Amino acid sequence: MEARAAAVAAGEERELVWLLEHPPVYTAGTSADPAELVDPRFPVVPAGRGGRYTYHGPGQRVVYLVLDLNKRGRDVRCFVHAVEGWVIAALARLGIEAFRAEGRIGIWTHDAGGQEAKIGAIGIRVRRWVTLHGLSVNLSPDLQHFSGIVPCGLADYPVTSAAALGAPSDLATFDAALALTAEPFLNSLTCAGEIET
Question: Catalytic residue at 152?
């Protein structure tokens, strides 16, 4: 990812969107507080992205975004907003009503009990106006694995998944939803408009 981002910045490679699924791991962003690492039962990897601790593992779609904001608009806030909108639009295609929460980065929905719960996390870094890292969406991970950390530093909110909400939770279905909503996402990076669901 680092090499690709450097090559994109130099004009030697094209932008890239990587779809990944990690083995169980906790990643620590640049704002990670050691007190929020409750039970390091999985490897803990310093990620170099923004944010705090998060969990990645099977049943979760991780998306790395290596995009050139020199060409798309040098506005990090706009970029994060657009990423949130992209995931919200993709989840809508799975029948999940997701939303942004004021003052909290990420993608939110209501869990089965009606409480606000995080279904997707965003952690990025921008170097030479090229983005690194990206987002993760909980499709069918073991939600107990999040109990080893304070996810994203937000102790008052649970995490949820598509499976826990009774929605389609296989990677292929979500990937198709991401693909169908990718063009509006990329077009929205100039902050010209919202992503349509």
Answer: yes
